Structures are given as C-alpha cells and as structure tokens.
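This section describes the prediction task in plain terms. A model, or a person checking by hand, is given the sequence of a single protein chain and must write out its three-dimensional structure as a string of tokens. No templates, partner chains or ligands are provided. The sample shown here is typical of the held-out split.
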Amino acid sequence: MGLFARLFKKSEPHQEITKISSETLDDNESGMKWKAVPAYIEASAEEYQLVSLIATAIAAGDQPKSQFVVKKVMQRNPEAKLVSIIASSLAAGLNEKSQFVIRRINKN
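The expected answer:
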C-alpha cells in the first residue's frame, strides 16, 4: 500500500455504541432502592480539634500572627474504604499491577 493510499484511504463507517446510563439501569429495576455510600463522613469533635490545630500550624509557617478558620473536617468512610478494597482486589484477579478507581458505591 503506497503512501497516498494510506493517507487518503476511506475508512469504514463506525458503528455507534450506545452507553447505558446508570439512570436507565435504576429505572429498569423496579422495587430496588439504592442508597449512595459517601466516600467521606464528618469527623468527630476530638478529631476536629486535633486536625484543625495541625493544619493551622502547618499553614501559618513563619507567620505566627495569621488567623485561619477550618470550616469542615472530613474523614474516610470506613465502610466505603472496605468495599473499595474488596472490589478492587477481586477485579485485579491475577494481574497485580492493575489499578482501579472506585467512582461511587451504592448499597441496597
């Protein structure tokens, strides 16, 4: 095949692949109510104070007269963390070098 033949070759028309959205799947399952599991939850009062102290000390650096307000302290949801570890371990199977991103977790 020559250079011009490769450059000006007409490609075959691509077939469009339709994606099934999660909303479509939710509508199809009647009676199944799924609840989203949040990836992060509010931290307790004891943890809030410690995290605020450490974060403001690091952020202040050499400016001891600066002021900071920590509005929200979140921590990883232990349930979501456990489910994501189990799911990615099962999905990895024999390929240990694979990586996965868990975008959301729902429970029934």
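For orientation: The beta strands are 35-37, 40-42, 74-76, 105-107.
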